[in-house]
């Protein structure tokens, strides 16, 4: 079966992302250290999950959840100066430099020569566009999809719009939950490139029995894997 | 020149939006009435404009700008309970029911029968998807573009992707700045449907000398206007 189209996740697949969230988590904990709240990170994570349906994925929603959690864990006693620091930390995330992961540029460049390569990412629209522009990879992609969530139906649409359908496509990313499992359900190859830091929300069991599931240790192994998969019936 | 494709703006063109921002502005002013800040609405608007480059358009950015302004105008003395009320007001906006404007459904339905109709809107991705789903108009559109900003280049891409290019397209919306002017620059028709309430950011001078500029008082006049434009050389 030919592979005409390769979808790439962006955050923590092509460039660092979770590391900025972790640093901001730490700064958030420091800001609230005076009130020494119990289970701070669990409560922030609970707020993030609770608000996903309203805010979607991305930094702005994370900022709003941090503010909500700061009020909640201090029982309304948090100082406005702390809230101002949270806003500043969030705006800093929105400006952080884009730092490519190893082999990202060479792998996308090499595969773009004889495949349609598509960036498929979720998060805040403007923030993802900024990162793509700053990454210097923008011109390599034949298509870009910034989506509110990654589902099998979304992969069906994206791989049909930018290629010849999911049967002829491979999706590459660090999240089993968002990049691999729904792509497999849509009929594409699902290629996992684990990242040291992955948000708990994105974790899932590896689908080791799925015939179209593969895992590689870094993007440098992708061109050979794709060549090999093309010879797989 | 045939018109194959019609682009519709969403907020305040197909359904009410600015009215919810105005109500939240009022609630915000009430929440801060004790500290009686000078020029509150100007300062909120200044924060919104200042933050557009970071946050983009949409409710989440508006929430963050309200929080920032509340801290700023009280010189850091705002109570956490007020911030919590601002968060609640924003989440309420994200849940507000979708209320179609007059003639929206019949006009899109009628034009969808013999044109490609495309929704082109900016704002938060998830929020715009929610409103489209709740509007009940989703199935009428041949394409949906949720974009970070409305520029001539964006209209060029959108009308080429979903139709036969801007020369054969008309863009319909309440914002001269976002819907009409850049669509005209791209070579499309720009049709203004004014709304009583329009955010100051979206205001611009009507391009009365542009041959492809038209204005109608409500969407009910659109099918006849499109029929007439098709007979215009």
What does this structure look like?
The structure is a homodimer of 233-residue chains. In chain A, helix 3 (59-73) runs antiparallel to helix 4 and helix 7 (152-162) crosses helix 8. The first copy, chain A, folds into two domains: 5-16 and 99-230, HAD superfamily/HAD-like (Rossmann fold); 18-93, DNA polymerase, domain 1 (Orthogonal Bundle), CATH 1.10.150.240. A six-stranded parallel beta sheet of chain A has the order 3-2-1-4-5-6, sandwiched between helices. Chain A has helices spanning 18-31, 40-55, 59-73, 80-93, 104-112, 125-135, 152-162, 176-186, 222-230; strands at 5-8, 116-122, 143-147, 169-173, 189-192, 213-215. The first copy, chain A, has 233 residues and is α/β, with parallel strands linked by helices. The longest helix of chain A has 16 residues, at 40-55. Chain A binds chain B through residues 54-56, 60-61, 63-64, 67-68, 70-71, 74, 76-81, 83-84, 87, 90-91, 94-95, 124-127, 129, 146-148, and chain B through 54-56, 60-61, 63-64, 67-68, 70-71, 74, 76-81, 83-84, 87, 90-91, 94-95, 124-127, 129, 146-148.
């Amino acid at each position: 079966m030919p592979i005409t189209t390769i979808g790439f996740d962006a955050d923590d697949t092509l460039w660092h992302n979770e590391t900025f969230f972790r640093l901001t988590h730490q700064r958030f904990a420091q800001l609230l250290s005076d009130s020494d709240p119990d289970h701070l990170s669990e409560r922030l994570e609970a707020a993030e999950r609770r608000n996903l349906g309203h805010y979607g994925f991305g930094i702005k929603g994370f900022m709003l959840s941090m503010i909500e959690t700061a009020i909640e864990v201090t029982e309304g006693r948090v100082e406005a100066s702390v809230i101002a620091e949270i806003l500043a930390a969030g705006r800093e995330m929105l400006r952080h430099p884009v730092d490519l992961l190893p082999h990202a540029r060479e792998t996308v460049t090499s595969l773009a020569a004889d495949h349609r390569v598509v960036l498929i990412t979720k998060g805040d629209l403007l923030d993802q566009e900024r990162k793509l522009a700053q990454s210097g990879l923008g011109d390599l992609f034949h298509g870009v999809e910034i989506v509110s969530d990654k589902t099998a139906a979304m992969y069906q649409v994206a791989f049909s719009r930018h290629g010849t359908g999911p049967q002829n496509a491979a999706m590459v990313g660090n999240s089993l939950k968002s990049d691999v499992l729904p792509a497999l359900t849509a009929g594409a190859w699902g290629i996992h490139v684990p990242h040291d830091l992955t948000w708990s929300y994105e974790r899932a069991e590896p689908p080791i029995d799925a015939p179209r599931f593969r895992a590689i240790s870094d993007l440098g192994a992708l061109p050979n894997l794709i060549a090999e998969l093309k010879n797989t019936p």
